[in-house]
Amino acid sequence: MITVERIKIEDFRGIRNLTVDLGSANFAVCGPNGTGKSGIVDALEFGLTGTISRLVGKGRGALSVKEHGPHVNSRTHPEKAVVTLEVSIPSLGKKATISRNVKSPKAPKITPDDPAIRAVFEHVQRHPEFSLSRREIIKYVLAEPGVRAEEVQALLQLDKLDTTRKLLLKISNAATRDLKALEGERDRAATHLMSALGIAEVKAATLLAAVNVKRATLDLPALTKLEATTSIRDGLETQGGVSAPKVPKVQAKTEIANGLTALEAIKTPETEAVWSEVVDALTALKENEAKLVDITRDGMLATALDLFDNEHCPVCETAWEPTEFRAVVETQREQLKTAAAERERVEKLIEPVVVALEGLRPMLRQLAVYARDLPTPLAFEPFAVVAKEADRRAEVLRNFLPLDDAIAALDTDWADIQAALDHVSILSASVEALPEPTDRDAARDYLTVGQERLESWRQAMTKYAAGKAKADAAAKVHALYGTTADKALEAIYKEVEAEFRSYYRDINGDDESKFEAQLTPSLGKLGFEVDFYGKGFFPPGAYHSEGHQDGMGLCLYLALMKHLLGDQFTFAVLDDVLMSVDAGHRREVCTLLRAKFPKTQFVLTTHDPVWLNHMKSSKLVAGRSAVTFRKWHVDHGPQEWKQTDVWAEVDQLVANNEIRAAAGQLRHYLEYAAAEWCARLGGRVEYRSDAKYELGDLLPAAIGAMNDLYKKAKTTAQSWGDNARFDEINACHTAFTAAVSQSQSEQWEINPAVHFNEWANLQRQDFEPVVVAFKQLEREFECPACGDLIYVVQSGKTKEAARCGCAKVNLNLKPKPKLWQ
């Protein structure tokens, strides 16, 4: 992937104009909350992906990148909101620049516009997970198993697995529903075939026995086999003679009788009783119809439980007590389960009614055909009307909802039934009036109609077989995919689990050196339990502290990223992710990042200057690879702790005789500067449990550390017999001592113990010497050539030298060995 050398931000989020040199190295951004740290995080994310995660996605309401990405003063000019990144691409050995504006976030300008470089940026864009906040850590550690599985699979680019699993289940369910319809068609085709042939079952032996009787009447050879291509009227064409009438009298009489029975069945007291029972059951459900409609919401409610962050409803953002929210949702789910069970019970009552209606349809349609094909045609509409209505009622009952429609479909006052019954009598009389067929004619009709029905049955059987094969295959594919995916995921999670365990032991080896963890995938969920000091496995939030949970989140994230990107994991943004980790484990975190991920550039933000010093002292972040914001202004953006800015502000306040404000500003800056001096020189500060170090703690420690360095450097020069070097160092030491003396003589002016009534007495002429004294003192901690702060070079615990960035200052602290003297 990439490392970032420089970022330039213009009119973006809370930043007006800011350039930060990251140098493709680990970099820290420090400052109190609200000073603009997140603006840099957002800019890095936007520059590389074209989006800002804190403005998009669930729970973001009306927020959007286009509307709220630009600085508030440029909100109507999104083209002015620009982020430009200068990057290195280790895999290509090239450098490149990418620039995006909020107006056209998906159209970055890439220089040079090389296909290989563009491919790298596209790869980075597909991996927005390079940016991690503490809010996102919770997704991996404290989320419900279903949500954790989704988030982890999304990070690993495996989220399509679950999408595919759901799609296969949908296909399987649809195939099963289709099979049920095909089964009905098969059974009705069998009924019609049996009716035409006068047999009780569709079996080869039974069918051939009946058919061969008729074939013998026509002097046709008997059929010995019934195969897929067998025609029971085979040989009939060669006999010639009169063609079969359109209405075969024998078969028509049988089917008219069957149709009459089916129609009369609708009007019987028994049928009316069954329909009435179903109506009563449906009516009883009406008061809970809303629950029946909402049955499909059970999945949504389950997801809501998974997404619940123990504070707000994931759908409407309403605040809830965790126990109350879960109780309400679970109660709704139980009500839906009860409603689903009741619906299933009533649907079983409805099923025979639907089967009867669906069976009525083909019978009546055949009667309509006979009515139409008579030598003197009859009206066929009475049959067609009832067939169509039977179709409609069956469909309504299959749909079940709305309940009023289903109840109406069971109305036994079906006037068209009587009209159809009356028309059956007319049709029966017309068929009865047809000439009686001879035995040979009857046999010919029998074989002709039987062949037609046999073909229809064969087609229905073929469709059913294909549907069953499809349903079976869909079910097997879904099951096989689930099993295979689970096995693959299990292997991945085992690898991630091992890395996670190793990382966590690295940062908590003092008290959890035998720590274990379990990542357990099952049915689209990912269980996550951790060992608690050998007392058993529990969810991370059960017993571990918030600091330990933060550490777990980081370790799991790093393990996932290592699996996902391997050597391509070269850039990550950690946005205040470890604010709860105690000081005792922060150095171990720094060591983990530096030792396990030496090729990864980490950009870390923190509001805690002590945490920043941990990063520097552990060599995770170089001394100059950090920026500290002191305040933020809506029109100017974040303000860094810069000498030129601070001294100019102090001078202006003094010029305006605003001494109290000038003293406060100077004190804040000197606390920041003295902390930096202590960090660079190894100044020893008395430990405070609240980590709130004041100027009285920091400045003496910094001065003492520099004084000790000069003393040791002079002793070292003497040990080597280098008198000229001794004189140079002594001159610097003398100047330093004078600056210290002058600053200490005026330090009371900014001491917090001064009473407010004394502040009011200070005047410009009183405070100007204070400013001059501390300006000079600050210069004593810097190289006069490059302006870099002097810092100590150590080997283990041994201080070997004190230097600056350009090496103009270079104090040797290694005296000549006594054996050489």
From TrEMBL:
GO terms for biological process: DNA synthesis involved in DNA repair; double-strand break repair. Pfam families: SMC_N. Residues 4-618 form the RecF/RecN/SMC N-terminal domain. It comes from the Bacteria. This is RecF/RecN/SMC N-terminal domain-containing protein.
